[in-house]
Amino acid sequence: MSVDGAVLGSVRHRAYANFNFGHEPPLDSLGEAIRRVAAQAGITLDSQPVAKVGLFCLAGADLPLDDRRITRQVKGRSWVDDVMLRNDTFAILRAGTDRGWGVGVVCGSGLNCAAVGPDGRIVRFPALGELSGDLAHGGGWLGRAALGAALRGRDGRGPHTSLEKMVPEHFKVKRPESVMEALYTLELDSQRMLELAPIVFKAAAGGDVESRRLIDELADEIIATANAAIRRLRLTRLTFDVVLGGGIFRNHDGAFTARIRDGINAVAPGATMRRLDAPPVVGAALLGLDALKAKPAAKERLRKELAKTPLASRR
Predict the structure, then answer these.
(1) Given CB 3.0 to 4.6 Å as the disulfide criterion, which of 13, 52, 246, 264 pairs with 33?
(2) 244 with 250: CB under 8 angstroms?
(3) Which residues sit opposite 242 in a β-bridge?
């Protein structure tokens, strides 16, 4: 991307891309994506930087110690002159509003929130699951909770639920116990629990009470997280945007969205919910233009070009 907002190349490279502490950093995958997008722009990725500024909005950049660690790792590759690191939640927020501040909530495999006040103050959360006090932690939690509800319905510890049938059917087995055993013996990758999130929404749409309870629990955690950021930044009496991004928000469950809207508006009546309809990479690119003090016309051009430019060479 040039400073005037022209898109010089775009790529979606599907690979493990979480920089969580304790995992091997996926620098090679990131480097491959940079190499491919640079090639589209006619730039050779070698020992020389390919751009003046690199704005990296990365999953796993959750704590200040993560910011320092990942920045060192990325700087070591000499891809760009100036490395600017943000959590991926900031890309969601920037892609969804041009105010320059507000609240961004991402709910995909996990749940996280970042908020920026009109004075530039920032609130963010560790988003480390139970370790950081999180309760209903995104789509991964919803999938695991669905399996738990199915098991409890079967053995009598909980109410009967259509998940008793729908969960095993999704994995082409007869009983939820078979799913549990496959997870226990590592025959089934635990990441596949994410596949159950849409199943829960489908069951709730069909009137399943237990599925609706789980969805409400997730909505309430989203509300609690967003409202905590709103209160800490003293936004309760202001007008601002709350941007909702991530796979969980790409559903057609009106009750889920309404519950979140009502819960946040009870604390901040001037908050407007905006479901993100642009790729989060738009937010990262706009943050880069913000850092370069680009003109508004450049940012408008970037939005328009990325809206009509497919992410090439998808894998």
Answers:
(1) 13
(2) no
(3) 103, 273
